[in-house]
Design brief:
The protein has one domain: Rossmann fold, CATH 3.40.50. The strands form two sheets. Strands 4-3-2-5-6-7 form a six-stranded mixed beta sheet. It has a two-stranded parallel ribbon with strand order 1-8. Helix 2 links the parallel strand 2 and strand 3. With 165 residues, the protein is of the alpha/beta class. It contains four helices and eight strands; from the N terminus they run βαβαββαβαβββ.
C-alpha cells in the first residue's frame, strides 16, 4: 500500500488561495510584484494577484522535479530569466504551490535578494524539511501532495525538455 497523500481539489485550492491572500493582507504586506515559480506557482500567483489586486505578475521558470519524488541535483532557472531591472526596488511576493526541499524557493528568493526592496514567499503547502520557511503558508504537511493541475497525466507526452545542467 502506498503512503497516504495530501489531496488538493480545485475547490479546496480556491479556499486555500483565498485564505493565503487573507494572511498576506492581515500582515499588511503590499506586494508591487508577484513572482510566480512556474509551473505550479502560476495558479497560486494568479489567484493571489486577483485577491490582492496586484496586476504586475512575473514568471520564473525553474526546473527541479522530474517526477514523483525525483529531481535534478540542483534547481536551474530556465529562460526567459526575469529582468532584474523590472524587479528593482520593488516589494516582491514569490508564489509557489509547495516548499518541499526549499531549493527552488531559495534560488528565486536569492535571485531577487540584492535587487528588490523586500522579498517574501507564499505557498499553499510547506514541508517540515524545507530549507526556506515561508512567510505565508496555507497548510504544512510531510505527505506527497496531489495537486489538481498535475495529478492526471499529460494529454500529450512531449520529449524530455530538461536542459543539460
Amino acid at each position: 500500500m502506498s503512503e497516504p497523500r495530501e489531496e488538493l481539489t480545485w475547490e479546496l485550492f480556491g479556499a486555500a488561495s483565498r485564505e493565503l491572500a487573507e494572511q498576506i493582507a492581515a500582515d499588511g504586506y503590499e506586494a508591487d510584484i508577484i513572482l510566480s515559480i512556474a509551473r505550479g506557482g502560476l495558479f497560486v500567483a494568479g489567484a493571489l494577484g486577483y485577491a490582492l489586486d496586484v496586476k504586475n505578475l512575473h514568471v520564473a521558470n525553474v526546473e527541479f522535479y522530474t517526477g514523483v519524488d525525483e529531481r535534478l541535483p540542483v534547481p536551474i532557472m530556465l529562460p526567459p530569466v526575469p529582468n532584474v531591472v523590472d524587479l528593482s526596488g520593488a516589494r516582491v511576493l514569490v508564489a509557489d504551490d509547495v516548499a518541499d526541499t526549499g531549493a527552488t524557493l531559495k534560488l528565486v528568493r536569492d535571485f531577487c535578494g540584492e535587487h528588490v526592496a523586500d522579498v517574501r514567499c507564499a505557498v499553499v503547502y510547506e514541508k517540515p524539511h524545507s530549507s526556506v520557511q515561508c512567510e505565508y503558508v496555507w497548510r504544512r504537511t510531510d505527505r506527497w501532495i496531489n495537486f489538481p493541475w498535475s495529478t492526471l497525466p499529460p494529454v500529450v507526452k512531449r520529449a524530455e525538455q530538461v536542459l543539460d545542467a
